[in-house]
Fold this protein.
Amino acid sequence: MIYMADTANLEALKKLYEFFPLEGVTTNPTILKQSGLKLSVAGEALKEIVGEGMIHMQVLSNTAEDMVREAKKYKAYFDLGDNFFAKIPVTPEGYKTMRILKDAGINVTATAIFTQQQALVASKAGADYVAPYVSRLDNISSHGIEVVADIVQNIYDFGLDTKVLAASFKTVDQIHRISMAGSQSATINPDLLMQLIKHPMTDISVAQFEIDGKDLYDIEY
């Protein structure tokens, strides 16, 4: 599964990139607001951190004409090439935008997805990634994991050239379950990414190794 960081927290992202096998970063207006950074500043900093990784950057406009212009501008402004993915919401104008951007050779991530049909239509419109919101579905008494599983099944059943980019998590268990459901990728906030790799038994085991090997490892390095 592809791991991406859902953040514009530059310090947290730098720390993660030191050891976590991330393949990109995702942003949206809410994430930018939380970071306190302007898009021009955040975009340049994210590009420097992720290197050849993907940057999924959301547009703010509402009309297809403006969304297309916005996406093209961001790709050129940050000189991201094929590493740039325009995040487009699944609205009528958004679906129109997806087809135009794909015809223009720009990668697309369909976002703010809450149903299997929204994702399927986005896939047919050319989206490279579809991003269902897991926790937000659970919060309205829907079943986020099941929606992800249904979207994954559609991709396989219909031979679609699209990946699921599951988003909006509150627990490690949710991430475990979407990975077992076959989600090809997930975008996760830094705190949860750290929790994914932590376990108290691991800490206990490592501490015991150090105690047991203290007087036995006699080769200098």
